Amino acid sequence: MRVTVRRGGEGRLTSLLAAAGFPLDLRCGGKGTCGRCRVLLTAGSWLVNGKAVDIAGEPMAVNACRTTLAGETGAVEVPELSLARGDAKSAVEWSASPLPVRAETVIGIDLGTTTVAAVKIRNGEVVARSGCFNSQNRFGDNVVTRINHAGTAEGVRELQAAAVADINVLLGELGCDGVSRIAVSGNTVMSLLLHGIDPTPIGIMPFTPPQRIFPVCDARELGIECDAGLLTVPAIAGYVGGDLTSGIAEVGLKPGEMLVDIGTNCEIIFRTREKLYSTAAAAGPAFEGAGIECGCRAAPGAIDHWFADGSWSVLGGVDPVGLCGSALIDFLAVMREGGRLNEFGRLEPAAKSFPVAPGLAIHEWEIAQLLKAKAAVFAGIQTLAEHCGEPVGRIWLAGGFARYIDLGHAVRIGMLPECEYTVVGNTSLAGAARLAAAPERLAQLELLIDEPEDIPLNLLPEFEDNFIGALLLP
Question: Measured between alpha carbons, how far is 2 from 247 in angstroms, rounded to an integer?
């Protein structure tokens, strides 16, 4: 789509396009390393990586985050794949026991790294839902980039302001009249940033969070535009946050059962006969489309499933513009099953890429990135089970991504082990909703966070061996 931008503010192209209603995918935090914000300059005077460029003829492909408008106006072609769009509202579903029936009107919020989801509760029923993408994405698409950005007081303020702004958008959609209480559940970094607390200690060994229990306060103290009290689900460890605290409480793990939340950071809780254990594996954002030229988030135009005959299903009933994570898992499974991929992820017969849809292809080097992501998930699960010395009988899969993947394909490619599965959706949001409805649960949750023993995978030599082995396609 062609967009005309006019000079304003600092003139950074990403800001100008966002102001015009075209927010770009800034997964690397605008450092120019991910290439997800590629656009075509078609007219105007620009500074590209500090070098003056005048576009008078042939369009020029650039990273928008490294480009500044030097003249008064400029023209840009913005590919659909470069936009930060997706179905954030899909993150508001969960499977859990009924909520407490209370006459109050309350709101539960899941403050996720990628999406923010909210529900309004009255008399134990969800009466309204809303969701949006976390606008902190402009500082990077994972908690590590957010931690790095929080290295200054100004960085912390920017990240807090973004979280508060997103919550205010959702509250505006849900309506705050008569709301007596809000509860928020999120990973440790998101919860710290919401309260304006510097999360940088989590970024260095031994990854200890500055706080795991957060103050109860009035929402307006944080800039949240609602006359209500605010509760925050406490965190377990630096990389195992309140979202998993909520998940444990919602699922009620029995011995031999795991709770696995698959995302950029794959968090795992395992209950043995003796106790609870927790860990986290850095799966990376490949299954969210990062590092994959034709990869994208779930949105209209995203291929969500890819089949053995080369056909596909696409969200929104429009022409395909990319593959989201569930389709990328399908691709690996179908291609391996059909003999088109060998165990090392190489195409057979030899080729640099494979066409998956008109104008879309997956390259061998991108397949390597997908294998690393699936290997991290499998190795995290396997290593924790080996460390505890007990087999896994059932895995509860939490998170929005888990609701859409073909479990058989995920097992087939060696991303998940063979066992019984139950998909439970957004248990973080469920926990926030339950806490909002029954605030007396906060004391129980604060006791719960001391039950798991956190096991850093980097301290277990088996993890590297399991990771290397899981890089192969079975």
Answer: 44
DSSP letter assigned to residue 121: E
Query: Given this model, what pLDDT does residue 27 score?
Result: 59
Our measurement of the distance from residue 256's CA atom to the centroid of its chain's CA atoms, rounded to an integer in Å, reads: 27
Question: Is pLDDT at 234 greater than 90 in this prediction?
Answer: yes
Q: Are 400 and 87 in contact (CB under 8 A)?
A: no
Q: How far apart are CA 60 and CA 39, in angstroms?
A: 8
Q: What is the pLDDT of residue 250?
A: 94
* Token digits of residue 412: 């087939």
Range scoring the smallest mean pLDDT among 110-114, 137-141, 212-216: 137-141
Q: Which residues fall within 8 angstroms of residue 52, CB to CB, at 6 or more apart? A: 45, 46, 70
Q: Are 140 and 28 in contact (CB under 8 A)?
A: yes
Reported as a pLDDT band with limits 50, 70 and 90, residue 386 is very high
- 52-73 average pLDDT score: 85
DSSP string of 88-115? GGGGG-B--SPPP--SSEEEEEEE-SSE
Q: In 315-439, which residue ranges form alpha helices assigned H by DSSP?
A: 325-337, 364-388, 407-412, 427-437
**DSSP character for 286?**
G
| CA distance linking residue 296 with residue 179, whole number of Å | 36
Give pTM, 2 decimals.
Answer: 0.82
Token pair of 294, please? 């034709």
Looking up tokens 């029923």 gives: 125
Which residue in 258, 201, 275 sits closest to 377, CA to CA? 258
Q: Which amino acid is at 273?
A: R
Across 164-275, the runs of DSSP E, i.e. the strands, are: 179-186, 217-218, 229-232, 257-261, 265-271
Q: Which amino acid is at 384?
A: L
Contact (Cβ atoms closer than 8 angstroms) between residue 177 and residue 230:
no
pLDDT bracket for residue 10 (50, 70, 90): low
CB of 214 closer than 8 Å to CB of 220? no
Q: In 3-state terms, the chain is what percent helix, strand and coil (to 5)? A: 35, 30, 40
Within the chain, what is the greatest distance between any pair of CA atoms? 71
Q: In DSSP terms, which residues pair with 231 in a beta bridge? A: 183
β-pairing, 420-425 with 394-398? parallel
